[in-house]
Design a protein that fits this description.
Number of strands: 0
Distance between the termini: 62 Å
CATH architecture of the largest domain: Alpha Horseshoe
Strand content: under 5%
CATH superfamily of the largest domain: Tetratricopeptide repeat domain
Low-confidence stretches: 32-37
Largest sheet: none
Length: 166
């Protein structure tokens, strides 16, 4: 199997999306002036959304995700939380609140918060995430259930921490 660089694959995909967007714009300009422009507007919006999503796999974004993972592996959980917060902000901006990658990033960030010693923050993050997971994917979705269990775990740990300090 030939060695295919992901950078070339992504570049090719973005080029295809760009060419398609140009074709849609040309059709919109040169097409039947009496035809409805609405379907073309919807197609243009969808292509823009896909283009933004493809950029999500840009090597810099992938590197940021890997850096957070490596920081957590070597024990720099605070650094991993900070980088994951940046990644989450970028993903929300590009993909929107309900995108599966955004929800997964929130799950990972909540877990990192707990591992970094912020059990209460992790519990709150998981509790908010459960509501969004249920709304987007349903109560039986595997990551909804995982988030529910994690919320209970971190809430119990936060409560035991607060009882120990009283």
């Amino acid at each position: 199997m030939p060695d295919v660089s992901w950078r070339w694959v992504i570049t090719g995909a973005v080029a295809v999306v760009g060419a398609t967007l140009c074709a849609v714009r040309v059709k919109k300009v040169l097409g039947n002036p009496f035809a409805q422009a609405e379907p073309f507007g919807q197609a243009e919006k969808e292509l823009d959304k896909r283009d933004r999503a493809l950029r999500e796999e840009h090597p810099d974004t992938v590197a940021l995700r890997h850096r957070a993972h490596h920081l957590s592996e070597i024990g720099d959980l605070a650094g991993a939380v900070e980088i994951s917060e940046q990644l989450l902000a970028d993903r929300v901006r590009v993909l929107g609140e309900d995108h599966p990658q955004v929800l997964t990033t929130r799950l990972n960030l909540a877990n990192l918060r707990g591992r970094a010693g912020d059990a209460a923050g992790a519990a709150e993050a998981f509790e908010r995430l459960v509501l969004d997971m249920e709304r987007v994917h349903g109560a039986d979705f595997v990551y909804t259930v995982v988030s529910q269990r994690a919320a209970v775990r971190w809430r119990e740990e936060a409560d035991s921490d607060s009882q120990g300090t009283e």
